[in-house]
Amino acid sequence: MAETSTTGTRAIEALSLVPKAEGKQSMKDFKSDQEVRWCPGCGDYAILAAVQGFMPELGLAKENIVFVSGIGCSSRFPYYMNTYGMHSIHGRAPAIATGLASSRRDLSVWVVTGDGDALSIGGNHLIHALRRNVNLKILLFNNRIYGLTKGQYSPTSEVGKITKSTPMGSLDAPFNPVSLAIGAEASFVARTVDSDRKHLTEVLRQASAHQGTALIEIYQNCNIFNDGAFDALKDRQQAEEAVIRLEHGKPIRFGSDLAKGVVRDPLTGDLKVVAVTPENEDQVLVHDAHAESPTTAFALSRLADPDTLHRTPIGVLRSVDRPVYDAQMADQLDQAIEQGGKGDLAALLAGGDTWTVVG
Fold this sequence. Notes:
Rossmann fold; 13 helices; THDP-binding; 2-oxoacid:ferredoxin oxidoreductase subunit beta; thiamine pyrophosphate binding; magnesium ion binding; oxidoreductase activity, acting on the aldehyde or oxo group of donors, iron-sulfur protein as acceptor
């Protein structure tokens, strides 16, 4: 879609603000000299390899790429990327990244966080980054457990989950991160799986091209404290019946021989899964990731059974154009300069009503 507004033009130009790399890059260029310290078999290794392998595609100077993380196993990520990075405060990575992306538009800013870091102590920061539509990419590793602190239940753990902190089973209803993001009016929302490198890379590719906040939920196996949590989506035979692969412009069908499809219930308006027949084939929804209304994307995010993970959609659920926060802020600053405005902090602090407090 062509953009004609100043803000839209700035959003498109943002891609060219980050300096290009000199010469061809490879995966090796993005590997740091730090020893990778995750448990053997952790899904984080697969995600790290996918990101390191994808980064050369951007063709950006690695000195102008920044990874910001919070606290958790996933938050060690910046140490292992040969870029700039910051291992920040628990839950505050989106807030720090917002300031960085808004003030330094010559940087490509990525956030790495986990389900506990992003959705518990960091929940408030996450939803505000999403609604503002700051130009950053958020990778949310979801293993449905607290791994770094040794196995307590997390905001995405299923009801009844028995852990060290819930020996009789969790009573909390879990967050659905994709539903939460769509509800916060995120302009790009996707889900993928750590072990499916091809799919993960394609989602990263689409997210990186998006202007604004892109959130990718990555199902990630914690083989120490929650091993096998996503087996239904990874086992080839089970996945055929459990995973709904979303592709823009294509009918939403899955299962053996694509025998199942997603349709809208004419009575309730809800989405439901049906066996596809010649009589109802034309009722199967065609995925529209660019629909202005988030209604259908949200309904798709609710299809998955939180316990069995059957009917789990993966892929890009929503990708829409929306004004980008840092571009709009830059417009305001330019406008203030054009109007001859000069900042005066002392005048600002002393302006209007002032009070003198005496002892």
